[in-house]
């Protein structure tokens, strides 16, 4: 089977397939990672045993993170399993499931949602580390993905600071390496020499994870938003802006620093502001700017509907197909540390299912080991607990109460 296309009941060999008994419906748990299993560089000693208790209760689980670091699902899951197991005080068998089968990264839905459409089209790939994100793009079938740093290298004048950084000098004209006469005033206005692909327009920009070089990435994306053939034309009003897909909306995330750090959501804010500024400089009518942004920017990751529908499909894949003649009740739990992403996703999902008349309900379990701190707004979380161990205890208590 292909990642993102699990068959119902396909995980029965793991011992985690469940519909929680005859007619009782499906209960399943989605765990955030940062702020739940790890706090900066530290890993929870309680994660392994908490997952074991869920498995013993026959309740399936998946991991869903707005991160990913440009790794494949298999690579991320392998590292995650090693860290969770290594942090456990007594990691006994049976080991809980921690594999690519139940690992959802911020960009995981793209393989199915975008892979076929963009397989043979030119796309700009944004994110680092370079080797990792290009490997993910290849595994998703994106044959013509161009990493933003490669694009900048091929167009040496795109980033005036790159050459200065490499030379150890200044980007100013009096200190750079350029010598000789201009020849004519017009010569400096000519675009850089195009490479073989520059006549082929970019079809999309994929912001997979945080780029190391914000300036260069922002410049590349704004140029492409203004023209899908940016090496040939500065602005092309005859075509709409290309879609820019963001995998992670989090403005802040819990890193090793004592206080939250800027994430990909902050990069999106910066890009939006610079795109508006560039359009003004091109004298594009101000009243069209918001529409251009809305038609181009596409958000994925928690708390978006696209990611939660993908998450629900993955949770259902851990259970046997429902009996003929009726839909099955579903009880989903989200364990996370961020009210603005994890719990907001729960809130939106419940609104969605209520409007559809579905017998599906989410409960939000907020932990205090990450972004959320005592006194913060909970965004309607069902409960607030100390950490991952207490979260699982609360879920098991809910399920015992449901079984009565």
Low-confidence stretches: 1-23, 181-193, 321-326
Strand percentage lies at 5-15%
| Span between termini | 37 Å
Question: Which sheet architecture does the biggest sheet show?
Answer: 6 strands, parallel
Order of adjacent strands in the largest pleated sheet: 5-4-1-13-14-15
- Rounded to the nearest angstrom, the radius of gyration is 24 Å
Q: What characteristics describe this protein?
A:
elongated, 404 residues, 35% helix, six-stranded parallel sheet, 15 strands, disordered N terminus, five-stranded parallel sheet, single chain, alpha/beta
Would you summarize the structure shown here?
Helix content is 35%, strand content 14%.
Give structural notes:
This protein is an alpha/beta fold. The chain has helices spanning 47-56, 73-87, 110-113, 115-118, 130-139, 148-154, 160-167, 214-226, 264-281, 289-296, 305-316, 339-356, 388-403; strands spanning 26-31, 38-39, 42-43, 61-64, 103-104, 123-126, 145-147, 204-207, 244-246, 252-253, 261-262, 297-299, 330-336, 360-367, 383-385. The protein has a 6-stranded parallel sheet with strand order 5-4-1-13-14-15, with helices on both faces. Strands 7-6-8-9-12 form a 5-stranded parallel sheet, sandwiched between helices. Helix content is 35%, strand content 14%.
């Amino acid at each position: 089977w292909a990642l993102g296309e699990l068959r119902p009941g396909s995980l029965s060999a793991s011992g985690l397939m469940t519909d929680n008994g005859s007619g009782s419906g499906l209960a399943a748990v989605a765990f955030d990672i940062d702020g739940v299993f790890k706090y900066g560089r530290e890993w929870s000693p309680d994660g392994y045993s908490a997952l074991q208790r869920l498995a013993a209760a026959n309740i399936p689980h998946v991991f869903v993170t707005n991160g990913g670091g440009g790794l494949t699902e298999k690579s991320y899951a392998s590292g995650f399993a090693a860290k969770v197991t290594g942090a456990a005080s007594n990691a006994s068998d049976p080991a809980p499931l921690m594999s690519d089968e139940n690992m959802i990264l911020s960009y995981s839905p793209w393989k199915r949602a975008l892979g076929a459409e963009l397989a043979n089209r030119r796309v700009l790939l944004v994110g680092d580390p370079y080797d990792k994100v290009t490997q993910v793009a290849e595994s998703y079938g994106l044959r013509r993905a161009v990493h933003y740093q490669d694009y900048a290298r091929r167009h040496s004048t795109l980033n005036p600071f790159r050459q200065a950084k490499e030379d150890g000098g200044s980007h100013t004209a009096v200190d750079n390496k350029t010598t000789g006469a201009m020849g004519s005033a017009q010569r400096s206005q000519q675009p850089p020499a195009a490479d073989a692909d520059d006549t082929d327009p970019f079809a999309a920009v994929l912001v997979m994870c945080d780029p190391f070089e914000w300036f260069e990435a922002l410049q590349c994306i704004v140029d492409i938003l203004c023209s899908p053939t940016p090496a040939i034309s500065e602005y092309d009003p005859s075509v709409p802006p290309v879609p820019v897909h963001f995998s992670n909306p989090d403005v802040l995330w819990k890193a090793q620093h004592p206080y939250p750090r800027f994430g990909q959501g902050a990069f999106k804010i910066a890009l939006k502001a610079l795109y508006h500024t560039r359009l003004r400089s091109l004298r594009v009518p101000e009243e069209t700017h918001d529409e251009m942004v809305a038609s181009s920017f596409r958000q994925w990751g928690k708390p978006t509907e696209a990611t939660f529908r993908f998450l629900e499909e993955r949770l259902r894949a851990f259970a046997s197909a429902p009996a003929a003649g009726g839909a099955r009740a579903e009880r989903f739990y989200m364990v996370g540390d961020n009210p603005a992403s994890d719990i907001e996703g729960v809130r939106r999902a419940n609104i969605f299912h209520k409007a559809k008349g579905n017998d599906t309900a989410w409960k939000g379990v907020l932990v205090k080991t990450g972004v959320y701190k005592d006194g913060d707004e909970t965004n309607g979380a069902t409960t607030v607990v100390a950490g991952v161990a207490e979260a699982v205890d609360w879920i098991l208590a809910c399920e015992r109460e449901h079984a009565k």
